[in-house]
Amino acid sequence: MRILECGCGNGGWLALLAQVLPDAREVQFYGFDISVEMVALARERLRGIMPPERIQVGNLLEGGSYDFDTRGGTFGLIFAYDVIQQLPRSLQASACEMMAHRMAPGGALVVFDHERLSLYGAKMGFKKIVTRITRIPLVPRYFCAARYPSLRSLGRRMAARGWTVNIRRSRLSPKRALVVC
Q1: For the sheet containing 55-57, what is the strand order?
Q2: What is the DSSP letter of 29?
Q3: Are 109 and 117 in contact (CB under 8 A)?
Q4: 44-53: pLDDT as tens digits
Q5: Interior CA angle at 133 toward 127 and 135, to 5°?
Q6: Using alpha carbons only, how large is the chain's radius of gyration in Å?
Q7: What is the C-alpha separation between 50 and 168, in angstroms, rounded?
Q8: How many whole angstroms from its chain centre is CA 33?
Q9: Of 19, 24, 151, 181, which residue is most buried, by most CB within 10 angstroms?
């Protein structure tokens, strides 16, 4: 199986998967991030787990970011954790579609993010607005740039394009996941 993390940051989630998956030695892990610095950190963290060329600089919206080798750039599992929220809302659905187009037959895309329309999303939205306007630090300043997506809206758009879509709620956190097959 080939697993791709889009927006892999410092490689923490890939490292965790390599530890907890029962047949991790049978898995080929890949990742990309828009930050050169994060790619360097991920390569260091994942040394011994995966070859450094499987972590590269890339952008969710650019098709070439998904190409690592000659196998056509498809993956059995693609996931993004707190990445879609970093995009302007006008680009969030396009990013999900780009990732979904890179799924191998029978594969899945899982987008973990905070739901804009959830209670948590509403509370965080309020805190971000107060922080931005008043400079009272209810959240770190860099949180203010995040635009939580509507996973339902993204899911409807993906379903309209023929994918099977499900939204799952985590029992351990306020996050939800958009699952596309």
Answers
A1: 55-57, 28-33, 2-6, 75-81, 103-113, 176-180, 165-169
A2: E
A3: no
A4: 999 999 999 9
A5: 80
A6: 17
A7: 29
A8: 10
A9: 151
Which residues partner with 57 through β-bridges? Answer: 33
The SS3 call for residue 4 is strand
Contact yes or no for 180/164 (Cβ under 8 A): yes
User: How high does pLDDT run on average in the chain?
Assistant: 92
Question: Is the overall model pTM greater than 0.85, yes or no?
Answer: yes
Q: Which residue has the tokens 């958009």?
A: 178
Question: What is the full DSSP assignment across 104-134?
Answer: EEEEEEEEEE--TTSHHHHHHHHHHHHHHHH
Asked if 107 and 181 count as a contact pair (C-beta separation under 8 A), the reply is yes
**Long-range contacts of residues 35-40, Cβ cutoff 8 Å, at least 24 apart:** 35/9, 38/8, 38/9, 38/10, 39/8
- The whole-angstrom distance between residue 72's C-alpha and the CA centroid of its chain comes to 20
Q: Is the pLDDT of residue 70 over 70?
A: no
Task: Record the tokens describing residue 9, joined without a space.
Answer: 């940051």
Helical ranges in the chain per DSSP H: 12-20, 36-45, 89-100, 119-134, 151-160
Q: Does residue 7 contact residue 34 with C-beta atoms inside 8 Å?
A: yes
Q: Are strands 103-113 and 176-180 parallel, antiparallel or unpaired?
A: antiparallel
